[in-house]
């Protein structure tokens, strides 16, 4: 019976050719890349042919770097269906921690570990609140967003901490010189390394599959033997750690940190980058390459609008509209699911 | 199909040639690369029940989505309501045309009251305010007409699935729908609730409503249908009138082949199972849905767990699988105590559980078939946490061929497959973990008839290999045809055993007596 079954049962409507599937995923992966290219070329033409110069591109890369690092952590979190609103505050607290340690005589070498530790610690607190006590991620990290901002101000006595001899300042100000005009900033190198490492974890490790599984269907993940709590713990710790790294990068650039101002509303740019990158807000679908493109788009917009001479107020309006329009266009591109 | 015994002519063998309430002519629907429906014509008359049958993937859902306005048909066909040509290009247009569909997944707002749901999107207003009193008063007679045991002010989430279905029907009646489509309405109902629904369907038929009843279950079609239309591979194969109905004829039309000996009886009444794998002793849960349940599962045995929906069978399985924590009792596995704190523990000890709700609790619909199959074992395949993709691909390919999954390749996402193929993918995940004990909760729910036969065959093969299998099923013929021994649950306790080592034959009657609480 079985041999006739297979031919008789062949349900043609269900068959999707492999090449079509590949094509579809390639288009999905490319995502916003064409928009990014269009934006860059447009700014180049409108802005007096300055945008695509080596010097300006390295500035764009530098501006994009911190947001891309935060957005990488955010990608992990959003892939599980969560959100981390606290990254801007964590960045401020960890930068404060780094500067304070860098000023301690003889302990300057511990400044970077201190930044990362502060980030990881607060990330772990988020993880315990969300995975352990099961507070919804939005609420838990809204709480830490506020509380950690206060802690950051407390750390420096609500003043700007400054260190002219910051031992790790090279991270924020040097780079790899390719030619006399083209320098790849270390900030950009770090961001790229973070993206590549994130890609590896998401696509080549068991943990990555588990992250997608938890975001795609948490109940099924649990029944399939995935340790959902451990996965959530990991993503919030990672997001915190990367926000700590953001603190290193930010303070290295400025030689200073201020608990009140540093990292204000960075979480929104990070979320915008992830969303522009096509990652689903309910979890389970998305890629780190999308986030990279999304982060670059935001940096290109910021830089390009200045170059073209758009006023500060209009920059906000244009950026907001671009985010909305880009995601709206994305909705058209995605075919409706058929059951 | 040339030797087909049944007339392929359209259904003009009806006695009175009145205008059909719904007439679809030459409806086709193409998606990029595939033709889901080709030239389908269908008629439904007021005051009759038209059963629409076909395997998953035959095009029933597509046809219904065209009627509901979710899809628009390819140009060339037409839809007539009471003889008048209509264009259904949106859900609102479908509603205006008097078409209502009760889907398998109910579309109610669970946090609102019954009356609010009935009037949703159409709330009566008095001086700009919602007229709640008027709404409740107007809903009451409607609910009375359906004979439901709840009032208009009941919150929907407090109702059972069956009752929520009645709310949906009430809503469609309120909207003066003259064509009511029921899409596998009994999937989640107990037999008593099913009876009540059938009575209602008959009542609505008397009232002159045209009912289209989509179902996989032959018994229901036997009982309700005035005519049966069969779809296969996107084509209308034909229509059978009441007097032509027979199980064999329908099956033949659905699959294009004869399925005699469909329920393969593997049971050897003389088989003796001595090798105990798992011993469940006096298990109870905190919610009181499982009470003092004991059972013994042997190597190579297929043990059935029968009972009505809500009898506590799934809850018992979840306790054994570690998805829920017991209040009291214990489990002995391979002679050792076994107290799973989470599903992972059960999987590590060789227990696998197939959920009854594969979309909500089983599959990752956006992920590929390969990822779904490998999920349970990727840790074993990985080296230092890094995926062994070659191994994974080979594994998925193997599972595909050994289970006979029909999909273009293992990398397509599982959400696009038919129910039967999805179920095979999920089974594949369980089997890759190499279980000793397999708990299958409604293994053929929402699965087409061909895949069903394959799953039965697979269960037989696995038992022959020495797996201990516990099958939970609400389909009586399935339990009878598949199991070596049957335990019957009722209201959280195991009421009795049917069959067993060399004992009497397993009959539906014997099971029903325990399930309905007739035998003590």
TrEMBL record, chain A:
Alphabetized UniProt keyword annotations: Cell membrane, Membrane, Transmembrane, Transmembrane helix
Family annotation (InterPro entries): ABC_transp_permease
Listed transmembrane segments: 29-47, 110-131, 138-156, 176-202, 228-250, 270-293, 305-329
Signal peptide segment: none
Protein topology in the membrane: Multi-pass membrane protein
Organism encoding this protein: Tanticharoenia sakaeratensis NBRC 103193
GO cellular component term, pick one: plasma membrane
Subcellular localization(s) per the UniProt record: Cell membrane
Name of the protein: Ribose ABC transporter permease rbsC
Pfam short name (any one): BPD_transp_2
GO MF annotations in UniProt: transmembrane transporter activity
UniProtKB/TrEMBL annotation, chain B:
Matches recorded under Gene3D superfamilies: P-loop containing nucleotide triphosphate hydrolases
InterPro entries on file: AAA+_ATPase, ABC_carbohydrate_import_ATPase, ABC_transporter-like_ATP-bd, ABC_transporter-like_CS, P-loop_NTPase
Subcellular location: Cell membrane
Chain ranges of the ABC transporter domain: 22-258, 271-516
Record's bilayer topology term: Peripheral membrane protein
UniProt-recorded name of the protein: Ribose ABC transporter ATP-binding protein rbsA
Keyword tags: ATP-binding, Cell membrane, Membrane, Nucleotide-binding, Repeat, Sugar transport, Translocase, Transport
Molecular functions (GO terms): ATP binding; ATP hydrolysis activity
GO cellular component, one term: plasma membrane
